[in-house]
Amino acid sequence: MLSIKRIVVGTDMSPLASWAAARAALLAHESGSESVDLIHVIDNLAIETLRHLMKTPLETERRLMELSRKQLTEIERTLSEKYQIPVSATTLNVGRPYTEIVRYAEFLNADLVVLGAHGGGLVRELFVGSTVDRVLRKLARPVLIVKREPQVPYRKVLIPVDFSEFSGQATEFAMNIAPHASITALHAFEVPFKASLESAGVDDDLVQIYESEVQAQKKKEMEQFISELGAPKATLSSIMELGPASAVIRKNLEVLDPDLIVIGKQGQSGQDETLLGGVTRRLIQEASCDILVVPLF
């Protein structure tokens, strides 16, 4: 089982970013993590703008740094007292947010990086967009994107799977990050060459038999996938559904209303609709629940 010993939280001090810090603390408390580490990055482009706009740029920059340090200290105190977890370090850097977050996570050998869904303050970038997208592309570590204010540990988790090693590891990580949750593995599949067979005039009954065989094979793959995970049946269930991945995932998000969706960083398919291609980008933009992206270790 993959452990979560050290959690890094990127914060821009916005109210939405505070949800990320709270979720990280809640996870640390539940999983017994060794520490939560905070990093706040003052965008160097914002600093340059201040230097050109202000009459006393150095004094303004000094006050900004001092205010940021006080805010970080207050966040550290709140997390420690409310969740009874160790906050090992608070770091204030100047640079590009995604670069500094990636560097800090690698330096600390973080097991999980937690980011808020949106940025704020002096940084106008949306965390969902350039910062989160770049962190996901640059960082080979699990990244949790928080979109909801945390109240309780995760209770309902949805995991789109393609039976690859990536999906297996994502599911294992999900069972660790949400040990008491009800977890659903979702597999969307399509019938190869069905449209071509129908266009060629192949008998409908034969096409239906072929579709049933494909579905039976997918069922076997799902059973093997779950069996190899060794998860209790009470906590891990499965759904298989015919259709494009994006449509199937969107439908089940509405029906199941999970509080977390977990995705492996790469799937088996090389097409544009791979789980960590267009589908994942749309999920990050559209899903209202938290999203955990897990790379292959």
From TrEMBL:
Signal sequence region: none
InterPro entries: Rossmann-like_a/b/a_fold (IPR014729), Universal_stress_UspA (IPR006015), UspA (IPR006016)
Pfam families attached to this UniProt entry: Usp
Provenance organism: Nitrosospira multiformis
Positions of the UspA domain: 4-147, 154-295
Matches recorded under CDD domains: USP-like
Gene3D superfamilies in alphabetical order: HUPs
Family per record: Belongs to the universal stress protein A family.
Name of the molecule in the record: Nucleotide-binding universal stress UspA family protein
SUPFAM superfamilies associated with the record: Adenine nucleotide alpha hydrolases-like (SSF52402)
